[in-house]
Amino acid sequence: MDGVGHFGLNGSINTANGSSNAVGGGAGGGAGGGGIYVKSDFKKTTNIFSKVYEDILSTYSQSVSNNPLKKRRQSTPPINLASDNYNPNYIIGCQLSVWHDTAGPVVEQLWTTPEYNLPSEFQSFMARQTLCGLDTKITSEEMRFNIYPEHSIMSSSIIFNARYNDKITKFALSLYMDLSKLSIYQHIHDIIADRLSMLASFILRNYCNNIADQISFTKELVLVCINLEHLYSSNYPHVDILSTFLMDAKPQDNDFFVKVITSHLQTNGSTVVFGTQQAQVLKWLDTLSLFLTPNEKALSTRILTNKEYIPDLVIQGLIDVSLKQIEENIYLSLKPVTVVDLDKMEIFQTHIQYRYTSYREDILKNILLQSQTRSDDKSLNRFKDPSIYIQKMVTEVYSLPMEMREIYLIHYMKLLLRKASFVVAYSQSNECLGINFAKKLKSDLNLPSESDVYTLFGVAEKLQLNLFISAIKLEEMERAFTMFTDGF
User: Fold this and answer.
1) pTM, two decimal places
2) What are phi and psi of 16, to 5 degrees?
3) DSSP state letters, 308-337
């Protein structure tokens, strides 16, 4: 079985020949090959840069003239990304460009890898392509994606405002990647955009504080590169349903089994399984992989050699780690996460839907504005509420002969997807569901429980990231909540 993920869901990224800067739109030439654009039928949340831009400018504006930066026409010597802890495979390099009033677009800093050296002419071309013709009055960041077949590379760039001495100017941070991984890039564009937005925020903070030393920034860049390398190299193998729990005579612990599947679906299939018994961890991963789409399986791993949690791998297993170790970096994940502790038979879940997005933004803003590691806020909560739909599915599966279970599971997941599509359509047709949207949907649509509402929205997120936020009209909910709290 190739997974019960064959919902027929197509990715939201389409090729557009001759439109090299089509991701996110924006000014600039399109020389250098074809590009990719992302359909935006549903409103997505803004990246962290927009959330901290004004705050960082105001926080560090007082001391910008004390130690002015020296403008230069040539960049400093390239910094090697490779180290004892990181051996680049698919990340080829990175470039920071800046617009100077007198020199125009220049390469401020280049990061390279031993196996690939970008020609200086290409570096200058990238600086011109990303920065020419832009207006600093536009304060929002802009994402671009370009393909350069003659160099066998692709680049993802974020263009943003930052302070250079006492003036606001345009910066561009471009990440160069191996073109052979284009098919995977299409599925992780949102993740890369998120990471580039975080890196741009670090640059904004440093330059607003007149810190052009790239050593501390390089550490952040390497962590992002390591994360992306894991995503590019991941791929979950074919799973035979005979090797999963669904072919057992019955679950060892039915309640635990139902809760794991429920939380797994509520967090859009993003799950970490950890314990001390390798065979059990692998069997759980194989079982959970049945509920993933082919695209999600391409961003999952069955390898248990990782010693720490890898943000945005869809499913992953860890051996001999603690819950605290996983929790330390879980906020970096773009999606909510389920964590399963097999030794203690406990299930933990981050906040889900818009609550996770808000929680994550708060942590990142705290790090960027206060220049400190995140606080000890609790990011994982014990999961307790199983879905009635999943309980019914599990009961039916184990009542069937083994040769019929696979077919039943496929059809039941398609049924959940149809129900999820209906819930989303109904939500979008309402002016405002209100803060208690789960209760309202449960009542209006006669759903078994609020946990089923969250499960259906989790399934719907497989269609489009942040579809939930679009459906419930989060902005209207936030305005209503602000009006309510302002009265006290």
Assistant:
1) 0.84
2) -140, 100
3) S--TT-SEEEEES--HHHHHHTGGG-SS--
